[in-house]
What we know:
Blueprint: E1 6-10, E2 21-26, E3 39-44, E4 47-53
Parallel strand pairs: 1-4
Antiparallel strand pairs: 2-3, 3-4
Amino acid sequence: MAEARVGVIGGSGFYQMDGLTDADELHVDTPYGEPSSAIVLGTLEGERIAFLSRHAPGHR
């Protein structure tokens, strides 16, 4: 399982994390259903980051 030490949840208009390299999408299912978008795992300035856009494009 992929790991990240830092998690970022983006708000309205923040759909991607600029500067993130080696990015992979992680699709998850929770007891509450699927999140608004895939979790993106990548590296930013040498640190593993997990990014989730709170509102997917189109605010779904």
